[in-house]
Amino acid sequence: MGTEDAALAGQGDRWTLRLLDGWQLRSDAGVTPTVAYRERRLLSVLALQGERPRSHLAGLLWPESEEGRAQGNLRAAVWRVQHLLDGVLVESPGMMALAPEVRVDVHELRDLAHRVVSLGDFPDADHALEVLRRGTLLPGWYDDWALEEREQLHQLRLRALESLADRLLERGDLDDALQAAMAAVTLEPLRESAHRALIRVHLMDGNHVEAVRVYRTFKERLNDELGISVSPQIVELVRPLQVRLPPAQPVDPGSWLRGPG
Hints:
Helix content: 55-70%
Mean pLDDT: 89
Low-confidence stretches: 1-8, 248-261
Structural class: mainly alpha
Number of strands: 6
Strand order of the largest sheet: 2-1-6
């Protein structure tokens, strides 16, 4: 961080930390200071995991270093953040946390996802879809803790999109339900629950051919890539249609199974 950055960063502004689709720390005044990777890792862990003991942070961030060196690295990172980024960190005996005033984009996504999954509650469909479709957590970071956090957020996002599709179907909002289900399928093309959500939307909309097409495409892909069969739950969704509809005529002959089943 340069001298000008440091001077501007010490004005008591509120900070926003972005972890989705890249890393950025920005003040309300528009300052985006240059933050070294060591300090980025510290701030990211605290943003994702909340308050943590200093010993935990040292071991997590420098797992291959001996304890004394890891503690030294942590002290250096904390010193740099405290002296150059006003109001970002808070300390208590043996503990470290991100200041509660720091806004973190992942927090909004997590909070909304938990509300949708646990309560079926969301402010409005457009806002929920916009938040849940935000980008990848810390792309290009391969620390073990970053990979674990990324996978946890990925699974939470998928569950929320599927739940959102179901809630929107209950409301009769087929257009937004379709967007939510398709977003889940795009995120995880081999996830059966996402395809079941998409099939339910097509069935509710009366698009029976589309429902069978989604089923057949998924069934073939699952068999080709993983060598496993679809579950009885997804078969039951389309079974009443399979006996009435003629075999689908796929655009790509290698994409779908022909005939019933």
